[in-house]
User: What shape does this take?
Amino acid sequence: MCRFLSYSGPTTFMQELLLDSSYSLVNQSKHARMRFEPVNGDGFGVGWYPEHEDSVPGTFVSIEPAWSNRNLREIASKIPTSHFFAHVRDASSGMPVSQANCHPFQFGNYLWMHNGFIGDFNKCRRTLLNSLSDSAFNMIMGNTDSEHAFAIFLDELGLDNSGQDKTVDTNQLFDAVTRTITRIIKIRKDSGCLSEAHMNFAVSNGLSSIFTRFNNNSKTTAPTLYYLQKNNHAGDELIVASEPLSEEAHWQEVQHGEVLVLEKGKEMEIRKILV
Assistant: This one.
Protein backbone atom coordinates (compact mmCIF):
# COMPACT_ATOMS: atom_id res chain seq x y z
CA MET A 1 0.00 0.00 0.00
CA CYS A 2 1.12 3.56 -0.68
CA ARG A 3 1.15 6.52 1.72
CA PHE A 4 -0.42 9.92 1.07
CA LEU A 5 -1.25 13.21 2.76
CA SER A 6 -3.33 16.31 2.18
CA TYR A 7 -3.02 19.74 3.76
CA SER A 8 -5.67 22.48 3.82
CA GLY A 9 -5.27 25.65 5.86
CA PRO A 10 -3.28 28.87 6.15
CA THR A 11 -0.66 29.41 3.48
CA THR A 12 2.44 27.37 4.21
CA PHE A 13 5.30 25.53 2.53
CA MET A 14 5.15 21.81 1.87
CA GLN A 15 8.49 21.23 3.55
CA GLU A 16 7.18 20.83 7.10
CA LEU A 17 4.91 17.87 6.34
CA LEU A 18 6.97 16.36 3.54
CA LEU A 19 10.37 16.59 5.19
CA ASP A 20 10.52 18.09 8.67
CA SER A 21 7.86 16.31 10.72
CA SER A 22 8.92 13.42 12.97
CA TYR A 23 7.21 10.95 10.64
CA SER A 24 7.14 13.05 7.48
CA LEU A 25 5.93 11.62 4.20
CA VAL A 26 9.51 11.31 2.95
CA ASN A 27 10.33 9.42 6.14
CA GLN A 28 7.35 7.15 5.42
CA SER A 29 8.72 6.46 1.96
CA LYS A 30 11.47 4.49 3.74
CA HIS A 31 10.03 3.65 7.14
CA ALA A 32 6.23 3.48 7.08
CA ARG A 33 5.07 2.28 10.49
CA MET A 34 1.51 1.13 9.78
CA ARG A 35 1.93 -1.36 6.98
CA PHE A 36 3.67 -4.70 6.63
CA GLU A 37 6.08 -3.48 3.93
CA PRO A 38 7.67 -0.22 5.18
CA VAL A 39 9.20 0.96 1.87
CA ASN A 40 7.33 3.14 -0.66
CA GLY A 41 10.10 3.78 -3.15
CA ASP A 42 8.40 3.44 -6.55
CA GLY A 43 8.09 7.15 -7.22
CA PHE A 44 6.27 10.07 -5.65
CA GLY A 45 4.26 13.13 -6.52
CA VAL A 46 2.98 16.43 -5.15
CA GLY A 47 0.11 18.56 -6.40
CA TRP A 48 -0.65 22.07 -5.12
CA TYR A 49 -3.15 24.83 -5.74
CA PRO A 50 -1.35 28.12 -6.46
CA GLU A 51 -1.87 31.27 -4.43
CA HIS A 52 -2.39 33.43 -7.51
CA GLU A 53 -5.61 33.42 -9.53
CA ASP A 54 -5.33 30.02 -11.17
CA SER A 55 -7.72 27.17 -10.35
CA VAL A 56 -5.56 24.52 -12.06
CA PRO A 57 -3.11 22.85 -9.66
CA GLY A 58 0.56 22.35 -10.39
CA THR A 59 2.05 18.88 -10.15
CA PHE A 60 5.51 17.39 -9.87
CA VAL A 61 6.00 13.63 -10.14
CA SER A 62 9.08 11.44 -10.38
CA ILE A 63 9.93 7.75 -10.55
CA GLU A 64 12.78 8.31 -8.11
CA PRO A 65 12.33 7.46 -4.43
CA ALA A 66 11.15 10.54 -2.53
CA TRP A 67 14.08 10.33 -0.13
CA SER A 68 16.70 10.84 -2.85
CA ASN A 69 15.12 13.53 -5.03
CA ARG A 70 16.87 16.89 -4.72
CA ASN A 71 14.20 18.77 -6.68
CA LEU A 72 11.49 17.75 -4.22
CA ARG A 73 13.46 19.33 -1.38
CA GLU A 74 13.97 22.49 -3.41
CA ILE A 75 10.34 23.10 -4.37
CA ALA A 76 8.96 22.00 -0.99
CA SER A 77 10.67 24.94 0.68
CA LYS A 78 9.93 27.54 -2.01
CA ILE A 79 6.30 27.18 -3.17
CA PRO A 80 3.62 28.70 -0.88
CA THR A 81 0.20 27.06 -0.92
CA SER A 82 -2.88 26.68 1.26
CA HIS A 83 -3.84 23.28 -0.17
CA PHE A 84 -1.73 20.42 -1.46
CA PHE A 85 -1.68 16.65 -2.00
CA ALA A 86 1.39 14.42 -1.74
CA HIS A 87 1.90 10.69 -2.37
CA VAL A 88 4.69 8.10 -2.15
CA ARG A 89 4.14 4.96 -4.20
CA ASP A 90 4.53 1.26 -3.63
CA ALA A 91 3.66 -0.13 -7.05
CA SER A 92 1.26 -3.07 -7.17
CA SER A 93 2.66 -6.30 -8.57
CA GLY A 94 3.00 -6.07 -12.34
CA MET A 95 2.47 -2.28 -12.47
CA PRO A 96 5.28 -0.35 -14.20
CA VAL A 97 7.19 2.38 -12.41
CA SER A 98 6.59 5.36 -14.69
CA GLN A 99 5.70 9.03 -14.38
CA ALA A 100 2.28 8.32 -15.88
CA ASN A 101 1.56 6.00 -12.94
CA CYS A 102 2.62 8.42 -10.21
CA HIS A 103 0.02 10.12 -8.04
CA PRO A 104 -1.53 12.60 -7.64
CA PHE A 105 -3.35 12.43 -10.94
CA GLN A 106 -4.53 15.77 -12.31
CA PHE A 107 -7.27 16.72 -14.73
CA GLY A 108 -8.42 20.31 -15.05
CA ASN A 109 -8.79 21.67 -11.53
CA TYR A 110 -8.93 18.18 -10.00
CA LEU A 111 -6.34 16.21 -8.03
CA TRP A 112 -6.82 12.52 -7.20
CA MET A 113 -4.88 10.03 -5.06
CA HIS A 114 -5.47 6.41 -4.06
CA ASN A 115 -4.06 4.21 -1.33
CA GLY A 116 -5.06 0.59 -1.82
CA PHE A 117 -5.77 -1.65 -4.78
CA ILE A 118 -8.63 -2.96 -6.90
CA GLY A 119 -8.20 -6.70 -6.80
CA ASP A 120 -8.25 -8.66 -10.07
CA PHE A 121 -7.89 -5.38 -11.94
CA ASN A 122 -6.76 -7.04 -15.17
CA LYS A 123 -9.89 -9.19 -15.06
CA CYS A 124 -12.26 -6.22 -14.88
CA ARG A 125 -10.26 -3.57 -16.74
CA ARG A 126 -11.83 -4.14 -20.15
CA THR A 127 -15.35 -3.92 -18.70
CA LEU A 128 -14.36 -0.76 -16.86
CA LEU A 129 -12.93 0.89 -19.97
CA ASN A 130 -15.96 -0.05 -22.06
CA SER A 131 -18.19 1.73 -19.54
CA LEU A 132 -16.41 5.09 -19.83
CA SER A 133 -17.38 8.11 -21.87
CA ASP A 134 -14.91 9.15 -24.57
CA SER A 135 -13.60 12.11 -22.53
CA ALA A 136 -12.99 9.97 -19.43
CA PHE A 137 -11.42 7.20 -21.51
CA ASN A 138 -9.05 9.62 -23.23
CA MET A 139 -7.74 11.19 -20.02
CA ILE A 140 -6.09 7.92 -18.92
CA MET A 141 -2.35 8.16 -19.54
CA GLY A 142 -1.05 5.21 -17.46
CA ASN A 143 -2.25 1.74 -16.53
CA THR A 144 -2.90 1.84 -12.79
CA ASP A 145 -6.18 0.86 -11.18
CA SER A 146 -5.98 4.21 -9.38
CA GLU A 147 -6.10 6.33 -12.54
CA HIS A 148 -8.90 4.20 -13.97
CA ALA A 149 -10.88 4.85 -10.78
CA PHE A 150 -10.23 8.57 -11.34
CA ALA A 151 -11.66 8.23 -14.85
CA ILE A 152 -14.82 6.68 -13.41
CA PHE A 153 -15.09 9.57 -10.95
CA LEU A 154 -14.78 12.14 -13.77
CA ASP A 155 -17.43 10.20 -15.68
CA GLU A 156 -19.77 10.26 -12.68
CA LEU A 157 -19.20 13.98 -12.27
CA GLY A 158 -20.00 14.55 -15.94
CA LEU A 159 -17.00 16.75 -16.72
CA ASP A 160 -16.20 17.83 -20.24
CA ASN A 161 -12.72 17.82 -21.75
CA SER A 162 -11.74 21.05 -19.95
CA GLY A 163 -12.01 19.51 -16.49
CA GLN A 164 -13.49 22.72 -15.06
CA ASP A 165 -16.39 22.39 -12.65
CA LYS A 166 -17.08 25.75 -11.03
CA THR A 167 -20.79 24.85 -10.74
CA VAL A 168 -20.22 21.59 -8.79
CA ASP A 169 -20.86 21.86 -5.07
CA THR A 170 -19.55 19.74 -2.20
CA ASN A 171 -22.57 17.44 -2.06
CA GLN A 172 -22.29 16.71 -5.77
CA LEU A 173 -18.62 15.91 -5.25
CA PHE A 174 -19.45 13.53 -2.39
CA ASP A 175 -22.19 11.85 -4.44
CA ALA A 176 -19.82 11.36 -7.37
CA VAL A 177 -17.24 9.67 -5.14
CA THR A 178 -19.93 7.40 -3.64
CA ARG A 179 -21.19 6.48 -7.11
CA THR A 180 -17.59 5.79 -8.19
CA ILE A 181 -17.19 3.21 -5.41
CA THR A 182 -20.60 1.68 -6.19
CA ARG A 183 -19.75 1.47 -9.90
CA ILE A 184 -16.39 -0.18 -9.25
CA ILE A 185 -18.06 -2.79 -7.06
CA LYS A 186 -20.64 -3.52 -9.79
CA ILE A 187 -18.02 -3.71 -12.56
CA ARG A 188 -15.98 -6.17 -10.50
CA LYS A 189 -19.07 -8.27 -9.74
CA ASP A 190 -20.08 -8.34 -13.42
CA SER A 191 -16.52 -9.40 -14.29
CA GLY A 192 -16.49 -12.25 -11.77
CA CYS A 193 -13.93 -10.64 -9.43
CA LEU A 194 -14.11 -12.18 -5.97
CA SER A 195 -11.05 -10.53 -4.39
CA GLU A 196 -10.86 -7.44 -2.24
CA ALA A 197 -10.91 -3.81 -3.32
CA HIS A 198 -9.29 -1.28 -0.99
CA MET A 199 -10.46 2.20 -1.92
CA ASN A 200 -8.94 4.97 0.16
CA PHE A 201 -9.52 7.82 -2.29
CA ALA A 202 -8.62 11.50 -1.99
CA VAL A 203 -9.99 14.06 -4.43
CA SER A 204 -10.12 17.85 -4.53
CA ASN A 205 -11.16 20.61 -6.90
CA GLY A 206 -9.39 23.27 -4.82
CA LEU A 207 -12.53 24.34 -2.98
CA SER A 208 -13.87 21.02 -1.69
CA SER A 209 -12.12 17.77 -0.82
CA ILE A 210 -13.29 14.20 -0.16
CA PHE A 211 -11.33 11.44 1.62
CA THR A 212 -12.61 7.86 1.89
CA ARG A 213 -11.61 4.80 3.86
CA PHE A 214 -13.30 1.77 2.34
CA ASN A 215 -12.82 -1.94 1.74
CA ASN A 216 -15.48 -4.05 0.05
CA ASN A 217 -14.76 -6.95 2.43
CA SER A 218 -16.11 -6.27 5.92
CA LYS A 219 -13.99 -9.10 7.36
CA THR A 220 -10.70 -7.32 6.65
CA THR A 221 -9.38 -3.85 7.40
CA ALA A 222 -8.99 -1.03 4.88
CA PRO A 223 -5.64 0.80 4.76
CA THR A 224 -5.17 3.21 7.64
CA LEU A 225 -6.28 6.84 7.41
CA TYR A 226 -5.94 9.62 10.01
CA TYR A 227 -6.69 13.31 10.34
CA LEU A 228 -5.51 16.17 12.52
CA GLN A 229 -7.45 19.40 12.96
CA LYS A 230 -5.79 22.51 14.32
CA ASN A 231 -7.25 25.87 15.26
CA ASN A 232 -4.84 28.79 15.59
CA HIS A 233 -4.67 32.53 15.06
CA ALA A 234 -3.88 32.05 11.36
CA GLY A 235 -7.01 29.97 10.76
CA ASP A 236 -8.20 26.37 10.76
CA GLU A 237 -6.15 23.65 9.16
CA LEU A 238 -6.78 20.01 8.35
CA ILE A 239 -4.14 17.37 7.68
CA VAL A 240 -5.26 14.00 6.33
CA ALA A 241 -2.65 11.25 6.11
CA SER A 242 -2.31 7.50 5.74
CA GLU A 243 -0.58 7.49 9.12
CA PRO A 244 0.20 10.22 11.69
CA LEU A 245 3.05 12.54 10.79
CA SER A 246 3.93 13.36 14.41
CA GLU A 247 3.54 12.20 18.01
CA GLU A 248 0.78 14.72 18.70
CA ALA A 249 -2.06 13.13 20.65
CA HIS A 250 -4.88 14.64 18.62
CA TRP A 251 -4.62 12.51 15.50
CA GLN A 252 -7.96 10.79 14.91
CA GLU A 253 -8.40 7.54 12.99
CA VAL A 254 -10.95 7.50 10.19
CA GLN A 255 -13.14 4.43 10.65
CA HIS A 256 -14.00 1.93 7.92
CA GLY A 257 -16.76 3.28 5.69
CA GLU A 258 -16.28 6.88 6.79
CA VAL A 259 -15.74 9.85 4.50
CA LEU A 260 -14.12 13.15 5.42
CA VAL A 261 -15.82 16.03 3.63
CA LEU A 262 -14.12 19.41 3.59
CA GLU A 263 -15.38 22.64 2.05
CA LYS A 264 -13.26 25.78 2.12
CA GLY A 265 -14.38 28.09 4.92
CA LYS A 266 -16.50 25.44 6.67
CA GLU A 267 -15.93 22.84 9.36
CA MET A 268 -15.06 19.32 8.24
CA GLU A 269 -17.88 16.76 8.19
CA ILE A 270 -17.70 13.00 8.64
CA ARG A 271 -20.20 11.03 6.56
CA LYS A 272 -20.79 7.37 5.81
CA ILE A 273 -20.40 5.47 2.55
CA LEU A 274 -23.67 3.66 1.91
CA VAL A 275 -23.18 1.16 -0.92
